[in-house]
Amino acid sequence: MANERLQIIPLGGLGEIGKNMTVFRYGEDIVVLDSGLAFPDSEMLGVDIVIPDFTYLIENRDKIRAIVITHGHEDHIGSLAYLLKQVTAPVYATRLTCGLIEGKLREHRIGKYELNVVKSGDEIRAGVFKVGFFHVNHSIPDSCGIYFRTPVGTIVHSGDFKIDYTPVDGKLMDFRKITELGNRGVLAYCADSTNAERPGHTQSEAIVADALMRAFNGVRGRIILATFASNVSRVQMAVDAAVAHERKVAVFGRSMVNVVGIAREMGYLKAPEGTFIDAEEVSRYRPDQLLILTTGSQGEPMAGLSRMADGSHRQIRIHPNDTVILSASPIPGNETSVGRTIDKLIKLGAHVVHGSTQGVHVSGHGSQEELKMMLALLRPRFFIPMHGEYRMLYKHAELAESMGVAKDNILIGDNGQIFEFTSRKGQLGDKVQAGKVYVDGLGVGDVGNIVIRDRQQLSQDGMVIVTMVLERGSGAVLAGPDIVSRGFIYMRDSETLVREMTKRVQAVIDYCEDNNTTEWNVIKTQVRDTLSRYIYEKTRRRPMILPIIQEVH
């Protein structure tokens, strides 16, 4: 064991927001930290979610001793059900996080799993690792940072955190444990970099509670509030404001219904008896007696708020007197879709309250002064910025250097990069397979970059389908060629173009027949190339061209 090196291998969360997953390996023992998802950007057409590539873990499944989870947000637990379909390992998480995970595992019909509840201050043994949990503040209760005592030294992972002196649940960050870890010596610190570009301190969640109370004052119509379903602290604030203003609470959106149900059942979401009503009961109450909680704060097309804005929601129509509160900030890449949703709501006459300037949202991640405080308390020898896009990682690296971490001891890498450590040395090693796996409906990984590229081409220039029937053997045309367009041109208005395209295809068929060419692939390729050149010459578009040949006796 003396010759072994500790390996830290991020499979997600570096150079991106979301999809957080990090592997800790020493010899034949592996501990996995978090198993999150990311939401698709506008170029990932049709994709539902994005999860990490589990290839490395599947290849080493017999070495996985534990999976530890920092907190219950989707970008940290959203791919766990997919991972547990491939590997078997005990999962350790705090009580609320376990409740949210269990709901997901039931939804995915995973019958056999081992879910262990831990609390702040607990330590577990996983192979050669001793893994400990310490409380941090974030926008969901029961959030933890995690430390690993290894044969080469102690590694600390912050999880997602901010330093909140007035947290909603009254539980302060465990500075005693953090200070103790720093005093004992930290070999490497892996840290949340989401707000590394923001100077100063992140505001307390208490600011939002006050802002929501003010936003509810004097509103005569319905209040519709959208936030992340897993932001239980924010949901509690909204419910408190509803109770204070004598409003009933109805919940819409599958994930919001699931999370609210679990949080209420486990005692993390509290409200007087009769506060929550079923969706079917909404029509029984006056508009000024209602708060509607829903998903869709990121402009997701199928989420509750987006469908309300589109007029396609089955139960809720937006009325001119409605007040819509977006209690979340757009994830990078979602700004356009969020803006579009807000525009639609305003057009329908709703009053929309959004943005941190209104006080209805504050970040759950620490800004520069909080990141510097953690560095000051832990005093790590090596530093690895994680959980952020590249500019965030580099900014966090600069902060670490300003706090006294030697520049050569600050390691920045990509997903799949192996960070190797001995008790005295840290360096970048080889890489393992890592990347994005697209989940589309029930398909996991069957939609790859080529399929996405085809979808992008179809969305931009449409499709031209050429059908024909050939006689087997001779290659003589028995029917066709017929041309059908989808998303390229309107056939009735483009008869001249279609007629000329048909002539070009017929010329290709005649040429192939004269030269005794009967191979389907050859005929298809020549039809595709000929049409592609002609269409681009006439329209400057490149539709997907799909020749279909049927052969008969």
Q: Please tell me what the overall shape is.
A: globular
In the sheet with the most strands, the strands line up as: 7-6-5-3-2-1-20-21
Q: Give the C-alpha Rg.
A: 28 Å
Largest sheet: 8 strands, mixed
Explained architecture:
The longest helix is centred in the C-terminal third of the chain and has 20 residues. The protein is an alpha/beta fold and 553 residues long. It is built from 15 helices and 26 strands.
Primary descriptors:
alpha/beta; globular
Helix-strand layout with pairing:
Layout: E1 6-12, E2 21-26, E3 29-33, E4 49-52, H1 55-59, E5 64-68, H2 74-77, H3 80-84, E6 91-93, H4 95-107, E7 115-117, E8 123-126, E9 129-135, E10 144-150, E11 153-157, H5 175-184, E12 188-192, H6 205-216, E13 223-226, H7 232-244, E14 248-251, H8 254-265, E15 276-277, E16 290-294, H9 304-310, E17 323-326, H10 335-347, E18 351-354, H11 368-378, E19 382-386, H12 390-402, E20 417-421, E21 426-431, E22 436-440, E23 443-447, H13 449-461, E24 463-471, E25 477-486, H14 495-514, H15 520-539, E26 544-552
Parallel strand pairs: 3-5, 5-6, 6-7, 11-12, 12-19, 13-16, 13-17, 14-15, 14-16, 17-18, 24-26
Antiparallel strand pairs: 1-2, 1-20, 2-3, 4-22, 8-9, 9-10, 10-11, 20-21, 22-23, 24-25
Helix pairs in contact: 4-8, 6-7, 9-10, 14-15
